[in-house]
Amino acid sequence: MKNKAKQKRNTRIKGIFILLLVPITITIYIATAIIWNEIQSSEIVHDITKVAKDVPNHLGDMEVPKEYIPIYEEAADKYQIPWTLLAAHHRVETRFSTMDPLLSPVGAEGHMQFMPCTFVGWKHPSCGGLGKGEISEKEKTNPATIKKYGGYGVDGNGNGIADPYELTDAIYSAANYLSQNGASDGELKKAIFLYNRSDEYVENVLYFYHQYEDERVALEHSIESNKKEVLH
């Protein structure tokens, strides 16, 4: 009997505790909500939030390596496309060749990330699927083989080899690809999309392209202004 009475008493105490706990919890919740709203409306938090939203647009931005610009310009001039477009692709594909290794999980190779079948040509007997193929290294870098199978690989430095892992060859090859797919006619979005069929990829490349174009125009304007000052 004593145990039953004790159990009833404990149950009653628990019930009272729960009844008291509910309004306390509600009060704490309301107070927290009010305080949080006050904090969010403050100028400091507004500024911090604004900066946080801006971070994704600028996180990881990198300046174009100056030593690469002459290569971009030469390739762009040959294939009649903006050199800043090549710089943007290089930035997105391998962060200006700082990616290690220069080989993607699906098999894209080199500084500008060409699938072997795109570099050598889809007419190669082994090509299919995503375009990895079974192409020997000798075939992969042979300009005659590339011409035979209709690939985009280019011997940019004139040493008789078209190598996606050689920077000049890779950039010339990318220029060739972009030019043949619309960039030389001003169809940049089309060319970028065909390079990598992703809307997000197109947005990323265009973001850096416009950034580098703005920097190029500003630099040219500054040089022109300095020339005029010297002449006067």
UniProtKB/TrEMBL annotation:
Q: Mind telling me which residue stretches traverse the membrane in this protein?
A: 16-36
Task: List the SUPFAM superfamilies hit by this protein, alphabetically.
Answer: Lysozyme-like
Question: Which keywords fit this entry according to its UniProt record?
Answer: Membrane, Transmembrane, Transmembrane helix
The protein here is known as Lytic transglycosylase domain-containing protein
The organism named in the record is: Paenisporosarcina cavernae
